[in-house]
């Protein structure tokens, strides 16, 4: 019976049970029990997902690239992927900017709260400022240097260094195509077998998902108890962010799918629902990656070579939800501080939030440090960050849902492009 329940329903059950347990624990004062006995299951779940992400990306990307007959397809796919990612990010930011300028959430924010929050979050703001300065000092080509690992084991030991893993896998795959021949066939079938084993491990981890999600949600409710007053003060701001994200998920992505792919929207949401719920409960697109890969390949039937390249790259450089959120947050802080933003500042917001989302790691609250840089380059006092920190986690959950949905949408678009290209080559008799 349990086996026949769809994954998204199981995750939903876990989430509901976790939220209920969290509220009951707060009401009956057994928060300690939740921290000691329930939260660890959530932590174990996240660890399992993170642990499987590196071997999965590594093996399936080598397999995807190694299976190409013509490496020029890789550069075509790479270029298309990055171009679409940047395009969707700019669109997402524009949606956020339009709504925040229409709704004006900063105007209804109670002024007296601004000082209070500044005091409360002073230390966190200082920490984030320092971290942002370190990144700024790193120089313009630091991101390229960061992509190249010194050591394979080290690269695989840090999930935030996914680009290093992608780099090694690309190199390996390209070398495999160049060498070719019988030996490579053996290697390919070994990789295929390893990939199947990892997918099986993901199935096991997903069996554990309801309990893991229960642990995450229960501890989240317990940890956020007492924040009700902050949530009320920031209600209009939260509504603006949530509404923008909602438009992206239910209007923007379906429109892209309809215009540029043959994927049915219903089928897309069916395939993505467990991924979205997982993104919501973990607040981490990196932790969600194994499931995103599995569902897009198996349920949406996107080819392995496309998903294994497009999705891990997306987790590192494409964050539509995050960039949309940052645009709203920047203008909101300016509104509360009574600063009028000029058109050139708005354009700067588009540029900076695009860059910032590229540099944001797919972890809970990963964008806050980059957000400090956005604020300072637009000329808004970084202390304004204190205004929104109390509300960050619930909005992080929502923007992560958009981040993973955006990645999967682009995977569908790239797949369509590849199919069309293959079709054209076939017609011309130059099949690759
Ligand atoms: N939590 C987000 C993600 O993992 C990143 C962020 O916006 O902070 O995609």
Automatic annotation (TrEMBL):
- Read off the InterPro entries from this record: Na-dicarboxylate_symporter, Na:dicarbo_symporter_sf
Q: How does it sit in the membrane?
A: Multi-pass membrane protein
Which SUPFAM superfamilies does the record associate with it? Proton glutamate symport protein
Primary location recorded for the protein, binned into one broad class: membrane
Q: In the record, what terms sit under GO molecular function?
A: symporter activity
What GO terms fall under cellular component here? plasma membrane
Give the keywords, sorted.
Cell membrane, Membrane, Transmembrane, Transmembrane helix, Transport
Presence of the UniProt keyword Lipid metabolism in the record: no
Q: Where in the cell is it found?
A: Cell membrane
User: In terms of domain of life, where is this protein from?
Assistant: Bacteria
One matching Pfam family, short form?
SDF
Q: Where are the membrane-spanning stretches?
A: 7-30, 42-62, 82-103, 162-180, 201-222, 234-256, 369-389
Report the Gene3D superfamilies cross-referenced here: Sodium:dicarboxylate symporter
For this entry, the protein name equals: Dicarboxylate/amino acid:cation symporter
Write the lineage as a comma-separated list: Bacteria, Pseudomonadati, Bacteroidota, Bacteroidia, Bacteroidales
